[in-house]
Design a protein that fits this description.
The protein has 178 residues and is an alpha+beta fold. It has one domain (8-176): Aminopeptidase. 26% of the residues lie in helices and 31% in strands. The protein is built from five helices and eight strands. It has helices at residues 25-32, 35-38, 48-57, 116-131, 146-154, and strands at residues 8-11, 15-18, 68-74, 80-87, 100-107, 136-142, 158-165, 168-176. An eight-stranded mixed beta sheet has the order 1-2-3-4-5-6-8-7, with helices on both faces. The termini are far apart. The structure holds coenzyme A (COA). Coenzyme A binds next to strand 5, helix 4 and helix 5.
């Protein structure tokens, strides 16, 4: 990863989506260490060391050139406000499902309830379906994450199943490219 690599993938009205750079590390780790952000994604905050490991080894790094969770930045002042993106959807045996992508929306707590996740979702769906001709976009949401459910349903996704895993349950949502 280059320190100043600023490759822009996509833009929406107020946001731009670009590859992460090493300069994003502190903002990224602050989100991973925030109990509000982590409440329904992992449950507990990560340590700084765990967050750094995630930054380097998680889906922030592009797969096949661009599929990733992209740094999500306010156009107005270049502020990093989270990560949103499309990344490969893996099947039961770890294979990438052709024509599918997984969508993730993560906004830093101080920026919640400004419509940013909804705006990002619309941009990602258009990018995935119109530019990359995906057949489906999928996402999983932990039961109880009502804000996320609200956003995903507003974006037109349909609930297909509820999976129970240990003491947590997850909704599986799908949006078909019709
Ligand atoms: C879920 C998340 C991405 C939403 O981001 P956001 O930028 O605040 O979302 P928006 O402002 O676009 O929309 C939020 C909507 O949910 C609603 N909402 C907020 N909290 C809610 C709650 N507890 N219950 C129901 N609806 C809620 C808001 O009113 C708003 O709806 P509206 O636009 O119809 O008024 C953000 O809370 C987040 O990053 N959470 C932590 C990470 C996470 O859980 N990501 C999802 C992984 S599946």
């Amino acid at each position: 990863m280059e320190p100043n690599q600023q490759k822009i993938i996509l833009e929406s009205e107020r946001l731009l989506f670009r590859l992460h750079t090493l300069d994003d590390m502190d903002d990224f780790c602050a989100m991973e260490q925030d109990p509000e952000v982590r409440r329904y994604v992992g449950g507990k905050p990560r340590t700084r060391a765990e967050a750094e490991d995630r930054f380097i080894n998680g889906p922030m790094q592009p797969h096949e050139g661009f599929w990733a969770m992209w740094a999500t930045v306010l156009k107005a002042d270049d502020q990093y406000i989270g990560r949103c993106g499309l990344y490969p959807h893996y099947g039961q045996n770890g294979e990438i499902i052709a024509g599918d992508a997984s969508m993730g929306l993560y906004i830093a707590y101080p920026y919640w309830r400004n419509g940013f996740a909804t705006e990002a979702g619309h941009a990602l769906i258009s990018f995935g379906f119109n530019k990359h001709h995906l057949k489906r976009i999928v996402t999983m949401i932990q039961v109880g994450n009502d804000a996320s459910v609200h956003v995903i349903e507003k974006l037109g996704f349909t609930l297909t199943q509820t999976e129970h895993s240990g003491n947590r349950s997850f909704y599986h949502y799908v949006l078909e490219n019709n």
